[in-house]
Amino acid sequence: MYKETSGGVEAARGIYNPPIIHPWSHFSKRSTVATIGFFDAALKAPNPIPPSSQIWQWKVFFNFLGLAGFVFFIVSFTSLMLFTPFFSALRAPGPLKSVPAKGAGLAWFWGSLAAGLLFGSVLYMPILGAARGHIAVKTYVPQTSPWGVGLWAFCCGLFSILCMILSYNLYGKKNGFSLKDRGVEISLPALGKTLLLALISVTVSYGLVFFADFFFKTDYRIWVIAVKAFKADKILVMLFPYLILFLTYYTVNAVAVNSFNFVSLGKKEWINTAVVAVVNGLPALILILVQYVPFAVTGHLGIPLTNSNMYVIWLFPILIFLPVTAIMTRKVYRLTGNPYLPGIINGILVTIISCTNTLTWA
User: Fold this and answer.
1) With CB atoms counted within 10 Å of each terminal CB, which end of the chain scores lower, N or C?
2) What is the full per-residue pLDDT of the chain (362 aa) written as tens digits?
3) What is the pTM of this model?
């Protein structure tokens, strides 16, 4: 049998008996050593390398730097374009500040965050289950994961619109909240320039990805998150229904995060940014914990539903997207007072990343 040693997996008598490994250790180097050792012995590698000799950690580290650089570039490039003559009209006279909030205002702030958190957490599995029933017609829904997650995001966006309508009519309008001053109202010329700048920012940013792919045969990926070059046929796949679903959510989310929830919390403005970013990602984190904490303890998944394990796995990139996009929107919003510009950019980016990183049914 095989037995695990400090040097990896050792072969004996030609029979494989996998070692008992705690579930969480599957994410560790130890399990990688065991797996490599098994295949070395089973397939008789002609030039074996010690299983413990691994460099994937460095690849992940530099991929992380690449992904971080990609995000920084988008925000920086968009901000720089706001200082060009053509797009300068989109720039605010000065950096926007958070608005004071106390009493009922803070109650609406925390209440709306809690309502969105509850809605997203409770309805994710039912929405994914309902979405699965419509995947049979693969001509119209050629990708499974973006369809389910996108439909959930779309529903969350509609719920956010409802919360903002209630907040404005029951509290904001009576307490000096101005839709124009907070960027909710936008003129047609400004909207046209907003769409144009969003397209330019995404195109230039992904141009760097194609440049890296063409000249260096590399892209930026960590596990289920991949920013990579793609073929032209993916563009048609993205347009419907995925772009509509993600664009709706991320645009609405940018309005909620910035126009309605950019309020003073303590003396530092970054506190508000941190709060909305964390709350943005909490539904995904809660569902992941509900699924995998019981698995770590008992060996059984926490949500015993058909295909529920895949539904929760689809949330891992969303766990990163939601907080990061909230921070991105805040950076651009403070320069422009325009929540639609970063919202549209994020909606397009998430659509591209999601649709180029999953299986397309023929």
Assistant:
1) C
2) 334 443 433 433 344 344 443 443 344 466 778 888 888 778 877 777 787 777 888 888 898 999 999 999 999 999 999 999 999 999 998 888 888 888 888 999 999 999 999 999 999 988 888 877 555 445 567 888 899 899 999 999 999 999 999 999 999 999 888 999 999 999 999 999 999 999 999 999 999 999 999 998 888 888 888 899 999 889 988 988 899 999 999 999 999 999 999 998 888 889 999 999 999 999 999 999 998 898 888 888 887 665 556 788 889 999 999 999 999 999 999 999 999 999 999 999 999 999 998 878 75
3) 0.85
Residue with tokens 């403070």: 334
CA distance 55 to 53: 7
What tokens were used for 233? 């046929």
- How far apart are alpha carbons 110 and 210 in whole angstroms? 42
